Amino acid sequence: MPRFIYTLAIIGLILIPNLGLAQESEEILSENLDNNNLEFQTENIADDENIDSTQNSQYTEPDGFYRAQVQAVETKESELLGRKLITQNLTLKILDKDQKDKIIVVENGGGTDLQESQLYKKGDILVVVETKVADKEQYYIQDRYRLPGLLGMVVFFLVLTLIFTGKQGIGSMLGLIASVGVLVGYLVPSLLGGQNPVLVTFIASFSIITLTIFISHGFRLRTFIAFVSMNLTLTLAYGISFIFVHLAHMFGVGSEDTFYLASVVNVDLDLRGILLASVIVGMLGVLDDVAVAQAATIDEIKRANPSTKFKQLYKAGMSVGRDHIASLVNTLALAYVGSSLPLFLLLYINSANVPIWVTLNSEFIGQEVVRTLSGSIAIILAVPITSFIAAKVFDNYIHKPRAKTEPIHHHGHSH
After folding, report:
1. Torsion sign over Cα 116, 122, 123, 124
2. What is the DSSP letter of 412?
3. What is the mean pLDDT of the chain?
4. H helix runs in 253-362, sequence order
5. CA distances (Å), 125 to each of 114, 120, 122, 227, in order?
6. Is residue 406 assigned to a domain?
7. What is the DSSP letter of 97?
8. Are residue 232 and residue 319 in the same domain, yes or no?
9. How many domains does the chain fold into?
10. What is the pLDDT of residue 8?
11. Rounded to an integer, what distance in angstroms lies between the CA atom of residue 178 and that of residue 176?
């Protein structure tokens, strides 16, 4: 009971200031939103709407999506300007119940330069779209049907996790499900509903931290320490990210996806706030990793040598933390670059005509720099914060003898 009351008190002390900070930050965000930026967004959205209206005049809304299996393939080859062009006439059998076993013929390619991934063979299962034009049914191929393969990957991942992590792996999986539930069930609908993105993201982040850390790592003292330090670090890192976004004149319009989002949603979206929200959510996994590792390290050092005091505990924690910082900062930067590698390649190709400083000055590059630096700062801050709190808590702490069935290590990193 005392530990439960202690937990509620910590949650209250952390959540209330965070909500206040989020509300205050959103007011500043709204006041500082540049009028020129608003005009810029309005013009671009208007242009997008004009394009959409032109496209809509030629676009027919799909009436149904179906899985269909290739029964036969007839391939025709031609040549244009030295390039081999391929057209496939595919005989397909629909697999879904309302049109099950219906045979249709769909042309694939139409004399275009098909890539290898766009060539189909007998037995392939595809996703086809049905449209009705003048009461006549027409079908076209949208994509390959790949859900069974993806499901197999997920099952393999789950089995592998459970084999090597045991019961704690179950907690990790439940934590992952909880995180996805908060993002899909609360954060995304709230953002699309036009709610305060910073406030909504803080509530979602706090919920994810609370759910995942205790489900994954259990209700133990080291978990409470990591929980407190994660929230403190997240608040500080958010404040720094907020400053970075303003210093770099980021408005959340660094990609075509943003313009498309703004044009299809019938709500005035705070694009800069959504950019900040994405930065905050991107920090959560990093914070969990660092905070739990630091708290567990100091806990184990104290357990191994009960006479170790605050100064030695903090010093040992920082020694491990420096290695953690070095490895995770590099990992984080490579992850962001890897996720945007095709666009980086395109920018490199265009560098012959565009000066490098212009490319680096683009909002797209600026957004990736802000994300990387914000995540790296979260790592750097989490190490001393968690080490300090853990060293203070375990300074005079007396561990109970560990049960024979209790595992010694609860974190996947080794240094």
Report:
1. positive
2. S
3. 77
4. 256-264, 271-304, 310-339, 341-350, 356-361
5. 18, 9, 9, 46
6. no
7. G
8. yes
9. 2
10. 45
11. 5
The verdict on 351 and 317 lying in the same domain is: yes
Residue 36 structural domain: 2-48+160-394
93 within 8 A of 68, measured Cβ to Cβ = yes
Residues 124 and 64: their CA atoms lie apart, in Å, by: 20
- 120 closest CA partner among 162, 81, 92, 154: 92
> What average pLDDT does range 53-64 have in this prediction?
55
State both tokens at 375: 């995540």
Q: How far out from the chain centre does Cα 214 lie?
A: 21
**Do 282 and 165 fall into the same domain?**
yes
Question: Residue 46: pLDDT band by 50, 70, 90 thresholds?
Answer: very low
Residue 178: what residue type? A
User: Are 294 and 321 in a shared domain?
Assistant: yes
Does residue 73 share a domain with residue 17? no
What is the tens place of the pLDDT at every residue in 395-407?
Answer: 888 887 766 555 5
User: Does residue 296 contact residue 223 with C-beta atoms inside 8 Å?
Assistant: no
DSSP string, 185-232: IIIHHHHHTT--HHHHHHHHHHHHHHHHHHHHH-SSHHHHHHHHHHHH
Residue type, 156: F
Residue entry with tokens 């197999």: 152
The answer to whether 44 and 259 are in contact (CB under 8 A) is yes
**Are 143 and 164 contained in the same domain?**
no
C-alpha distances in Å from residue 133, one per residue of 60, 82, 173: 8, 36, 46
Encoded amino acid at 47, one letter: D
Q: Which amino acid is at 27?
A: E
Please check the confidence at residue 40 and state whether its pLDDT lies above 50: no
DSSP class of 183? I
Whole-model pTM: value is 0.66
**Cβ(359)–Cβ(347) below 8 Å:** yes
Rounded Cα gap, residues 361 and 351, in angstroms: 13
Residue 352 neighbours by CB distance under 10 Å: 6
